[in-house]
Amino acid sequence: MRTRPLKVALLGCGVVGSEVARIMTTHAGDLAARIGAPVELAGVAVRRPSKAREGVPRELVTTDARALVARATSTWSSRSSAVSNPPVR
Question: Is the dihedral of CA 62, 63, 67, 69 positive or negative?
């Protein structure tokens, strides 16, 4: 098993994002066993940080999506890549 965690940055914490965060935190052991590496929620970028988000630690919430993605990807190897999906307006 890989010892370095796979860091995940969530962009948005609505119905889908909050459920992804919940699954990542409550099923961390199962996810690690399935993918072969520990999974770490690096943070969640949102538009309104003051809004209550059940199951998401307050210290992981930010409005700075660029900084969050940079923090989550800072330890990637040169062989890794990220897919960026800008929000639809």
Answer: positive
